[in-house]
Design brief:
The complex is a heterodimer.
Chain A lengths: L3 E4 L2 E4 L5 E7 L5 E7 L5 E7 L6 E2 L6 E5 L5 E5 L8 E8 L9 E2 L3 E5 L1
Parallel strand pairs in A: 2-11
Antiparallel strand pairs in A: 1-3, 3-8, 4-5, 4-9, 5-6, 7-8, 9-10, 9-11
Chain B lengths: L4 E3 L2 E5 L4 E6 L6 E7 L5 E8 L4 E4 L2 E6 L4 E6 L8 E8 L7 E2 L3 E6 L1
Parallel strand pairs in B: 2-11
Antiparallel strand pairs in B: 1-3, 3-8, 4-5, 4-9, 6-7, 7-8, 9-10, 9-11
Classes of the chains: A mainly beta, B mainly beta.
Chain lengths: 114, 111
Amino acid sequence: NAGVTQTPKFQVLKTGQSMTLQCAQDMNHNSMYWYRQDPGMGLRLIYYSASEGTTDKGEVPNGYNVSRLNKREFSLRLESAAPSQTSVYFCASSYSELAKNIQYFGAGTRLSVL
Amino acid sequence: SQQGEEDPQALSIQEGENATMNCSYKTSINNLQWYRQNSGRGLVHLILIRSNEREKHSGRLRVTLDTSKKSSSLLITASRAADTASYFCATASNSGYALNFGKGTSLLVTP
């Protein structure tokens, strides 16, 4: 049981390049989330997917797009990377969309935009 | 927006001592959760306390919740070097879809 798997673990981009961060969970969870974590900060929600087929903006969605490909997979795309998007990105999942539930996190993707 | 605020930002203790971290929040909640993050890793859920609970235990962890003061504390008893990590509180509202995380307390436990 792998839990939440994120790929890649590390990535370096040049300003203006695009990339997609992949996330998959094998816990049959309905809801999935993308967060970013910056030094000295807690986690900030970028986008979430309450259930398969739905996505909604979080606190900091600008510059990102997401796709809930199926129940297992939720990807985050940077269309034109900017240095301000240098961060550690975490994917998480939970049984239901309600914030009453525990979230399970992946190991993170460390992204540098030069 | 970040609702939880942990205090202190950093804490350094010796093995065997107790570690206490505090969290304050601003709006009404359904529950409050504590997570641990080891360096370079993802967050791991530790404990959840509901708004109608005042205290909860899990192993060496003790969490209290005071909804009148909008605050919570996490106590780790008999700390070990392996407890070295950042600890985050996260609040869950009755209607919101996401957890609101604080900035975390960095705990260092030295042998």
